[in-house]
Amino acid sequence: MKQTMRSRAAGWVSTAVIAGLFFSFQISAQHNPAIAQAGHGEGHGAPATHHELGGAVQVHTVHMAGRSRTLTHHILMEFLLAAQGVDTADKLEDLRRVHAECEAILRGLRHGDEGLALSGTTNPEILDDIDLVELHWARFADKLLDSVDSGAVTAEQVADIDRLSGPLLSSMDAMVSAFEYFAYGGRTFSVLSQTVGVAQKQSSLTHKMARQVLLIAYGHEVERNQIRLAESFETFGRVLTGLVSGDPELRVLPAPTPALKEQYAVVERLWADFRPIIESTLKTGQPDGVALGGIAHRSMRLAAELDQAVELYHNL
């Protein structure tokens, strides 16, 4: 986003729901790139047109872009469960179906797909992001289908999938942010947009923690994954507290509406159920007291409720 930005007070946030409650200000992406990265649309130029595709179509397109990322998280967890002998044959067969669905969405985001109600895009910046996703997806999918076709998962394949998933998910994050930015006509870097950006990362962080637990349980690079899990755990907890009560250092607003307060109460209950799995894995190297399949189930429920909170922000 090419514009001159400066850190300054900009008055009270003026949406009808939260008017008079919070102080908004412009954040300098040039002077604080970490904050700019957390907001929507980092790296994208001025939007071509507001509501380029029309409101309902845009919302659906953003949802489907996000679904491709969610399906990739799903693939990773099912793959790691299959690697540890949890319903291996069924999970590998299901991965073939999920792979096909994700691939169809990626094609539809670019070219359109009547069956998926996707109109495609000609926006060059979004197409650049799709190009990168497709590059990483092709490499990832080749390794995935090798396992699916063989009916088994080897330690080498686990290492390959783990290595390839990071760049793929990062490129998907950028693609989803691009669709959101152009769908909503661009955003200023305000406290509210910073809060939404931080809230969005919590869902991916939930999936990441579950994946790290399963990698540790499998025995793949245990020390490295324990360090990363500890970092993810600390970040998630601090950000969740900030989203509920506010955090000036993170520039995160407290939950601004009764609906969001209620939603985060649901999230906190699910987090209280998921947190002991992380703690036991960090302490003992194993997710004590829960079946491996339960890890995926609990993380998916938590991520779904976090996504619902983000939708509530978009409706402000």
Describe, in plain words, how this protein is organized in 3D:
Residues 1-43 and 45-54 have low confidence and may be disordered. The protein is globular. It has helices at 33-38, 55-83, 88-111, 124-150, 155-183, 191-218, 222-245, 258-284, 292-314; strands at residues 8-12, 23-26. It is an all-alpha fold. Helices cover 69% and strands 3% of the residues. It has a two-stranded antiparallel sheet with strand order 1-2. It folds into two domains: 44-189, Four Helix Bundle (Hemerythrin (Met), subunit A); 191-316, Four Helix Bundle (Hemerythrin (Met), subunit A), CATH 1.20.120.
Strand arrangement within the widest β-sheet reads 1-2
Topology, number of strands: 2
* CATH architecture heading of the largest domain: Up-down Bundle
Quote the average pLDDT: 82
Helix content: 55-70%
Instruction: Note the run of SSEs as H and E.
Output: EEHHHHHHHHH
Radius of gyration, in angstroms, nearest whole number: 20 Å
Coarse structural class: mainly alpha
Distance between the termini: 23 Å
Overall number of domains: 2
Unreliable stretches: 1-43, 45-54
- Outline the biggest β-sheet: 2 strands, antiparallel
Shape summary: globular
